[in-house]
Amino acid sequence: MARSWDVFCAVVDNFGDIGVTWRLARQLVAEHHQQVRLWVDDLDAFARLCPQADVRASRQTQAGVEIRHWEAQWESVEPADVVVEAFACRLPADFEVAMARRAVPPLWLNLEYLSAEGWVAGCHRLPSLQPNGLSKYFFFPGFDADTGGLLRERELLARRRAFQADPLARRAFLQGLGIDVAANERLVSLFSYEQPALGDWLQPLVDQQPPTRLLVPEGRVLPDLKAWLGVDALRAGDCVTRGRLTVQVLPFVSQAAYDTLLWCCDLNGVRGEDSFVRAQWASEPLIWHIYPQDDEAHMHKLEAFLDRFCVGLEPGLADDLRGVWRAWNRAEAPGPAWSALLAQLPALRAHAERWCVALAEQDDLASQLVAFAARQG
Ligand code: TRH
């Protein structure tokens, strides 16, 4: 059944909030034929992911999704059948009043942040009574059958596998980004937060075989990279070589192109939530820079994910992986685990594919949201 949806996104910082909601909104339209309005408070952030967007338009349609700037006259907005508040962003007060006034009240969902922790399954889909008299349901993405799953488009894995089996397509895609890879070169992408220890991670690559090409989309890690390279400026298109390591700065590309970049690399440094999930669908080795939180809460989340991910991994490799991920997130030098891990990329790749296949057995997040809405009437 075609329902109407209001998806609310407040951009706190970075691109994760808009990255997830924009992807979800597109999938609800394309695969489930829902009618979706995406309310965004920061159109500049949206335009980084959707370059054809008009940053001045209060209303526009992109990929079948009605994009609305979050500055409406709320009295005149009739709430949709389903209201999704992403990442606990507060809805406009007048809109909450209108929701309660609706003849059939909307299904109200709080789409939560991703976590691999065990408590998530117990909280998934729990209702909570709100001051306007409606219940709001917590909807948790996650890594097992008791959670809401992960965003995954229907044909994603088939498209990814076809691409990875086609060296010409890979070469053409990389050339389109100005990347000329040598035959024996190892490709590594790096999308991370600030990393003060970056030099300790890059130095071993200067002397190591095979040569490495590090692809870095413009963003928060560039000052650390610039400092280590000892250059005055770094911008998209720049290429700097130190020994066997070539660093190439890329422009920030569309979500679809970023996916394809992940599919091309032998190792992906990813961060936050959405790029982290996309790297798992890419089925290549990854290192996760988790979004830092107060009181080291993020380190518990990191361990919870590692506990799941390392099942079935050869114990020595699992130790190296844990050591590398912990050191990266604590901004420490990696120690010998880093070179050991790089030497085992083929084994890690095989494990990443097994992990990806197992994850794909659960229903994807958009399908689960649609099914939940159907069950609630
Ligand atoms: O930008 P992030 O750090 O977002 C974070 C997290 O979501 C975090 O949990 C949240 O609390 C915080 O925001 C507010 O990382 P993330 O989640 O990977 O989002 C980045 C998005 O940008 C993702 O959709 C992929 C996209 N992207 C592109 O479209 N093109 C690019 O070139 C790159 C590098 C990323």
TrEMBL record:
NCBIfam families: efp_Arg_rhamno
Reactions the enzyme catalyzes: dTDP-beta-L-rhamnose + L-arginyl-[protein] = N(omega)-(alpha-L-rhamnosyl)-L-arginyl-[protein] + dTDP + H(+)
Species lineage: Bacteria, Pseudomonadati, Pseudomonadota, Gammaproteobacteria, Pseudomonadales
Keywords for this protein: Glycosyltransferase, Transferase
Protein name per UniProt: Protein-arginine rhamnosyltransferase
GO molecular function terms listed in the Swiss-Prot or TrEMBL record: protein-arginine rhamnosyltransferase activity
Its job: Protein-arginine rhamnosyltransferase that catalyzes the transfer of a single rhamnose to elongation factor P (EF-P) on 'Lys-32', a modification required for EF-P-dependent rescue of polyproline stalled ribosomes.
Protein family membership: Belongs to the glycosyltransferase 104 family.
Organism: Pseudomonas flexibilis
Domain of life: Bacteria
